[in-house]
């Protein structure tokens, strides 16, 4: 299985600490050696880095780790291939345009018979079940809502129903964002933590790294991190259950 990492913050924030832990799971402390990717939203644009090599051996991953790109919304993924060969076009996250905004998607799991679902507007470039599912989701949204709904909760409730349709096909843990909201749907494994004042120290599970967030933040900062499995061993993460969905905007949970 793959692993996911996401971040939603109320101010541009770097994800170096969490990404450093995730990198180790791509070939050092974990088996996810079949590529990695990360997308940073910046306004309506995206800084996108992907590599079919293991993150632990990737010079591009080292660049991301050492260059603290700041963003309010981030999606990242490390891959353990089960559908589709190891190549750049099959490397998450995937991105498409809808309503004049970039949508970004990453998925953990396998979806049997997903390709029996018809596609109309969006079509995959690669051969993964994940990208196919992303295209199907955007197709369904575009058909149901030619224009964005007035209330974000209306849209995310619809996306949750789509997740409920996909979950019986296998395993469907996903992160999805339009740059403003970050939606997280759990099929088997997904968790999250919100950090706010008073900030404390945290240490990574997969690397000998400790950060004192009090020294790195302001009292007004709110940062939520989402991961397949907890990245730190001295913080209390919120473990999601099958069928759960969380949506975050600027670090805060939205009611959906």
Structure characteristics:
globular; 15 strands; 256 residues; alpha+beta; 5 helices; Glutamine Phosphoribosylpyrophosphate, subunit 1, domain 1; single chain; seven-stranded antiparallel sheet; six-stranded antiparallel sheet
Quick one: biggest sheet?
A: 7 strands, antiparallel
Would you give the CATH topology? Answer: Glutamine Phosphoribosylpyrophosphate, subunit 1, domain 1
Radius of gyration: 17 Å
Number of strands: 15
Strand content: 25-35%
The CATH class turns out to be Alpha Beta
CATH architectural name? 4-Layer Sandwich
What's the layout of helices and strands?
Layout: E1 3-13, H1 16-24, E2 36-42, E3 45-51, H2 59-66, E4 71-78, E5 94-98, E6 101-108, H3 129-144, H4 152-166, E7 173-177, E8 181-185, E9 191-196, E10 201-203, E11 210-212, H5 213-216, E12 222-227, E13 238-239, E14 245-249, E15 252-254
Helix pairs in contact: 1-2, 3-4
